[in-house]
Amino acid sequence: MSARVADSTLRATNAVEVDATTSGTIRSVAAGVSGGGTVGLAGSNTTNAITDSSKLVKAEVVNSNLNSGGAVQVQALSTSVIESMGLAVGGSGNAAVTGSNTTNLLEDEITATWSGGSLYGSATSLTVQADDAATVRTLAGNVSGAVTGAFGAAIAVNQVGSTVQANLSGMTLHAAAAAAVDADLRGEIKSVAASGAADAFASVNGSFTTNTLNASVKAQAVSVTQVTNGGAFSVSADNDSDIFALAGTISGSGGAAVGAAVAVNDIGGDVTALLTSST
Predict the structure, then answer these.
(1) Contact 204, 258 (CB under 8 A)
(2) By CB distance 3.0 to 4.6 Å, which of 150, 248, 268, 276 could disulfide with 199?
(3) What value, to the nearest 5°, has the Cα angle with vertex 174 and ends 168 and 178?
């Protein structure tokens, strides 16, 4: 998705917007149910991906001159969502084995740029903004019950990787406008992995969720000249991401019961706000 103005001279009496906005949504459910007098086996798996090859969002103004009498905005915005559920239920008079897995990958590349050219007139503001609101919500669950042995596992793996860039470079502000260059990631992962097993003799089950949110967020103003003193000039970059994860397990047995729950979360990457070679 792209919106582009290049090598142009434009005049507008009101607000001007160059916007590239997209939203991609995946919703998936996988379920497995089994029952048997001797052995019950049940499994479910769901794998989802929204990758940057299809999620490149770019709004740009290149080598163009604009005379505006209102607010000017160059914005790239993505609101991608993955919602996934994997469930497995198994029961047997002898042994039951169940497992569920959900794996989700979301990658965005969001860029808003004004490079070269000038802004004239009585424009009230100039905003160059790249904004990514990537969201992943998942549930992996399983239940197993048997007389001799019950075994189960629930696994949820989620990854969000984004590149968010807002750039203002090589241009001249003749208008006395307030200017803002802003790059913002508002990523969110919500994940639940739950497992339960019950047996008269032995039950073993576990749940595991790993969640990674890794992003490069950059806002920069380079070689920008303000001919007329105007309002505030701001350059800001923000990674305002959250991970909410829950891993839980319940095991019951007349003999031995073993259960384990693990949640591993990581938010990383780099955040940069740069103002250089400008007057």
Answers:
(1) yes
(2) 150
(3) 60
77, 109 contact by CB (below 8 A): no
pLDDT digits (tens, 9 = 90+) for 187-241: 899 999 988 888 778 788 889 999 999 999 999 999 998 887 667 889 999 999 9
201 vs 51, which has greater pLDDT?
Answer: 201
Selection from 232, 226, 230 nearest residue 172 by Cα = 226
DSSP states along the chain: -EEEEES-EEEESS-EEEEEEE--EEEEEEEEEEEESSEEEEEEEEEEEE-TTT-EEEEEEEEEEEEESS-EEEEEEE--EEEEEEEEEEEESSEEEEEEEEEEEEEEEEEEEEEEEEEEES--EEEEEEEE--EEEEEEEEEEEESSEEEEEEEEEEEEEEEEEEEEES-EE-S--EEEEEEEE--EEEEEEEEEEEESSEEEEEEEEEEEEEEEEEEEEES-EESS--S-EEEEEEE--EEEEEEEEEEEESSEEEEEEEEEEEEEEEEEEEEES--
